[in-house]
Amino acid sequence: MPTVATDFRELGPDFVRNPYPVYARLRAEGPVHRVRITDGQEIWLVVGHEACRAALTDPRITRDFRKVHGALEKLGGGAADSPALTHMLLRDPPDHTRLRRLVAREFSPRRIAALAPRVQEVTDGLLDVMLAAPDRRADLVGALAFPLPMTVICELLGVPELDRSSFRAWSNEIVGTATGPAREAAFDAMVRYLDELIEGRRAAPGDDLLSALIHTVDEGGDRLGGDELIGMAVLLLIAGHETTVNLIGNGLRALFAHPGQLELLRSDPDGLMDGAIEEMLRYDGPVETATPRWTTEDVQIGTTTVPAGDIVLVALADADHDQARFAEPDRFDIRRDARGHIAFGHGLHYCLGAPLARLEGRIAFRTLLERCPDLAPDADEAGLAWVSGMLMRGVRTLPVRW
């Protein structure tokens, strides 16, 4: 086994707050490195825009854990037969193709665009509550960044409002650093809940997405099976809110740290908002590394051979800070042409919900700029608590004042 190039656990909180210099140093040395990540595992980390894009489309680097003996054990355990793992993000073609085809029609551009009035209504309601605070202070994550996408995705799927706090707790366990019993317990609880919800929708369909998925049949008569419905619902619930939470939180932190860019965006939100969202995604995106992959055979990356059966993480965060792709990548510039970033992934696993996250981000920032002209940070950046693990990148709270 190769020597570990970097033990991320030894880098302390500075790495969590700003991993980009560490990634840049590794990138200067080569496109792949054996590292020990924050939960203690040793994995292969791919860095650099070109190498990351290549790894995300290499059929020898799979997301389907069933193809690699002991794959889940390497991640800290988990039940391979759990319905929660029966979804398209953990499948290769042709299984992935089939599952994505069955759900993609529910995420068409027209259907996403039709959600704009409801997203605006939810945003306005949340800001009404936030701005009523007598001390003119709030946690922006708790007041807006989390409840906005959670409300939207739960309404889409038909999850009752009273149950949404449970989903937040389960999601925190699943995407964080929890392993073994804690992670399995979160998956099991979510599966049990969704199984009951799906059975209820079979008996009494509504106009929600879950009901549509239950009854969707393609031209050949194919439809999602019971476990596949649960797995798809788990994926949509988790991915459907985690990315937007951190897009809003990280984007606002970037604007606070660059007041000239904030004022520029305020001066022309109609002309600059779309580009600003893309730059937020590139500069400090919501996903630090793509979900784990495994090599199904020996794979050469650069001059290094990654052995079959090993875990590979693709550093999306570094890919979008590669000077070979973006000039002055550490500069935050909302007028930059940020197209080509891979904040939502690349290839066949490109995030299906990316258009919804962009819609929610545009509406959230536009409304914040209009209704909170004096919005400012209310805590030092160094004191913020960060989401654990290397999957999602974001802060747990973001104190603001106005």
UniProtKB/TrEMBL annotation:
PROSITE patterns: CYTOCHROME_P450. Signal peptide: none annotated. Keywords: Heme, Iron, Metal-binding, Monooxygenase, Oxidoreductase. The keyword Heme applies. It comes from the Bacteria. It holds the Pfam family p450. Belongs to the cytochrome P450 family. This is Cytochrome P450.
